[in-house]
Amino acid sequence: MQTLSQWPKRDQFYQYLDSLLINPDNQTNLIALLIMNLDNFREVCELLEFRDIESVLAEAAQIIKNSCPADSYTAWLGSDEFAVVLPGTTEKEAEQTAAAICSNLGNPIYVNGRHVLITASLGLAFTPRDAQDRYELLKNASMAMNWAKKLGKNGYISYEPMMSRHISRRVSLVNDLASALAENQLILHYQPQVNIISQSIVGAEALVRWVHPVHGLIPPLEFIPLAEETGYIIQIGEWVLYQACTDFNNWLEQGIVLERLAVNVSIVQLKQMSFADRVLEILEETRLDPAYLELEITESQSMDLPEVRPQIERLRNHGVRFAIDDFGTGFASLNHLRYMGFDTIKIDKAYIHNIITNNRDQVIVGSILTMAELLQLGIIAEGVETDDQLRYIKQTNIKEVQGYYFSPPVEKSAFEELIQTVQKRS
Length: 426
Ligand code: C2E
Ligand code: CA
Ligand code: CA
Hints:
It is built from 16 helices and 17 strands. By secondary structure, the chain is of the alpha/beta class. The radius of gyration is 27 Å and the shape is elongated.
């Protein structure tokens, strides 16, 4: 077997690729570039001696080479990254090769008395279809590889132009996030939480939107994750809370009295040591009674972090309530109920969507309700859109719902009108 250092490296690989691109001898076929990166290499390194790591990489290179047609070119790009060039191929052939590489790498590698499991994520790009030169080809294949990683690793994916568009929109939105707050581009919408027995609006959930000067209205599902990655979520979250508390207090002064103001908080905010203090400061600045506030947290693995629980406990001691959002979709829901202090469960809309026809969803919703009752937690069904869904929910004994059936999230003034109409009716 070739040692790792015997494989062509980056320089030779570039030279080879350039020579192919300068003299394409077969105009009808494509040249495919496969870039791959091992998925769990860091763990493998922690497990093995340095010498053995080299053997694993050399073995991986050999497996890759053996999975490819005879006229292919395999190179080691350093660390756990490899490249394969298929000089005259089709998309189908190249994808078959990629599939073979994934599957063959999936077998355990035997090194120095132990089995090592590795998998790889592969990106493919083709010239002339996707790229005119080496730089573009490498960039697009790497982009596809990152895509494969994000889609769950241990797989391959071919470059598509939408990947570039997606990345450039992302980059431009991240750049613009800084000015979103400074230039007052964020707004809040409110969605009513309705008690279906009394037919009255009992709460308001604040939902943030970004009115971008060029791209128009950007939904939170697109920019909140970016804000979380960049840390802007801290400032955005504080703005949302301040604005929502101010609006709610304003309603109280107008005689619009609801039981609850629901505000979403990101786990990134909750991990801050100063989170509870900031919330209490904002409540004081806006003079809102903490008993009105319910903070919603979407369940995630990071909820288990030791720094999160004290923040929740401190705020609950001041009367702030907590809801577990999108219940049933995240991780270890039951464990969270056991260890963290929650007051309300919000059943995810995915369970309500097919509640009329899907027996499993019916059973799950029924069990969540029973559990909530036994644990003395409040319960809200999200995503109620139709008459039938509402009728079903009513007979389960769930009393509070949110959903398009009553109203989508609307601007503050429209929300006030909505409340006035409902109050007049009752
Ligand atoms: P969420 O907290 O689960 O909010 C409910 C989402 O469901 C909202 O989407 C709402 O418009 C939508 N929805 C309400 N009723 C229905 C219905 O009947 N059918 C369907 N299909 N959808 C319905 P939106 O406003 O796009 O917000 C998406 C998510 O973004 C929120 O999910 C929340 O996780 C996050 N988000 C929104 N505002 C904030 C914020 O201020 N801070 C943080 N950290 N996250 C926020
Ligand atoms: Ca929510
Ligand atoms: Ca939700």
